[in-house]
Amino acid sequence: MSKYSLSALVAAGLLAGGMSVSSASAADLGGNCCADLEERIAELEATTARKGNRKVSLTVSGWVGQQATWWDDGAESKVYVNDLGTTLASHVKFTGQAQILPGWTAGYVLHLEAVGSDSLTMNQFDADGNSALTGTNNGVGVLQSFWFIKSDRLGKISLGKQSQASDNTAILVDGSGSLVPANWVSFDYNGFFARNRSTGDLSNLTWGNAGGGVWGDGNGLPTNSIRYDSPTFGGFSVSASWGESDFWDIAARYAGEWHDFKISVAGAYSQTSDDNVFSQNMVQPAGTGYFQIGAYVEHVPTGLFAYGAYGHLDYFNTNNALVVRPNGLDNNDTYYIKGGIRQRWNPLGHTVLYGEYMYAENHDSFATDNGQGGSFASELDPGTSAANLWGVGVVQEIDAAAMSLWVKYRNIDANTFGAGSFDTDEMHQVSVGALINF
User: Fold this and answer.
1) pLDDT above 50: residue 106
2) CA distance linking residue 162 with residue 322, whole number of Å
3) Which residues contact 360 (CB under 8 A, 6 or more apart)?
4) Which DSSP state fits 331?
């Protein structure tokens, strides 16, 4: 993370401008050199980012991340070059802050995301993906844009397009260094179609819908909202937000150290009555409710770590009552565990070895069929599927470049139930990627 002041930008501009002036031209300035210099500075200030009387700081940060993925769906295999999925894709963030009074600050965040190939929607027919599903566009778009006022004693209020309090709550406690390549969101395979093991045909069931839409994270995209974040007391903090249209959530977090152990725990609940939000469903409900919790523990001397998360999604009808399915099945649940070791075995930085497992069930699995078309799903008789994922990987951190490199393998399969059910072929993926911070 690097800070660039306006004075540095002006100095760079002056240096570039000065280098383009020949010695003869410099001699011609004569007694007007100071006036010309002041005019040049005024021109530069008119064409560069202003800092509001030089009282507002400007921090530029972000990362660039890409990976190459080999996939095999049981009958076809290819290699795609893809990004890391919206919210993890390459981005640049501009953050500003100024002191109002002692203990009070005001600031802003402008967060731009560059999606080169939308990994959430790529599939056997589209290597780059169609990001209309996630509400983003391939190219550069605004992921967040909001202002905030913060008190050291009272907390922070922010307003605009931003991550709500429950955004990725269960994921962000993962301190292993393997969060980006291994988390419970189906970034790498969400849009791929499952193949019927018996016939070899592609079905209308995507792996994302087999596990409940976006699997673990039912509330993972920034929204237009107002948010409150409390100060941290003894490692504890709380957050809450409200947004369009009648969306609200609350989250609580804890992080601390006990003897030789690092511990982080976070949980959140969110609810919305907007039937047009991006959520894990086929039948558009009148509303959804999502509970998530995640925990991370690491034994610092040995580097052994464990991480787990649980998510539960409910649907509500127009009377704001919980939707109960005729078959008596509960709504969607996701379970995720990961364990491994984080140690510094070489001078480059920490090496992380991990294994992961996830079970996700979806009782509203749309287009569960036998590969012959004829999708089967309705509010009275929804399709049901249960998906399993396991994987292993290694991450190498390079401290001198603020960079992480990884190699990972993942295996995904699913069971489908009800009319038109079928056995899926396994999906295999091997990804090699990197992320570099700036």
Assistant:
1) yes
2) 28
3) 184, 210, 211, 212, 215, 216, 332, 333, 334, 335, 386, 387, 389
4) -
In angstroms, rounded to a whole number, what is the distance separating the alpha carbons of residues 434 and 423? Answer: 35
Q: What pLDDT is attached to residue 299?
A: 98
SS3 188: coil
Distance CA 404, CA 436 (A): 7
Q: Quick one: tokens of 371?
A: 């590969």
pLDDT of residue 375: 35
Q: How do residues 42-93 score in pLDDT, each as one tens digit?
A: 666 555 555 555 788 889 999 999 999 999 999 999 999 999 988 889 999 9
The pTM is what? 0.80
SS3 per residue for 22-45? CHHHHHHCHHHHHHHHHHHHHHHH
Would you call 47 helix, strand, or coil by DSSP? helix
Say yes or no to pLDDT of 261 above 70. yes
Q: How many C-beta atoms surround the C-beta of residue 283 within 10 A?
A: 14
| Residues 206-242: tens digit of each pLDDT | 888 776 555 666 667 888 999 999 999 999 999 999 9
Interatomic CA distance for residues 427 and 157, integer angstroms: 44
Q: In this structure, how many other beta carbons lie within 10 angstroms of the beta carbon of residue 145?
A: 16
Domain 62-85+115-125+158-437 has CATH 3.40.190.10: no
Q: What is the DSSP letter of 385?
A: E
In 3-state terms, what secondary structure has residue 212?
coil
| Amino acid at position 417, single letter | F
Domain ranges of the chain: 1-50, 62-85+115-125+158-437
d(CA 387, CA 233): 39
What's the CA gap between 198 and 127, in Å, rounded?
Answer: 26
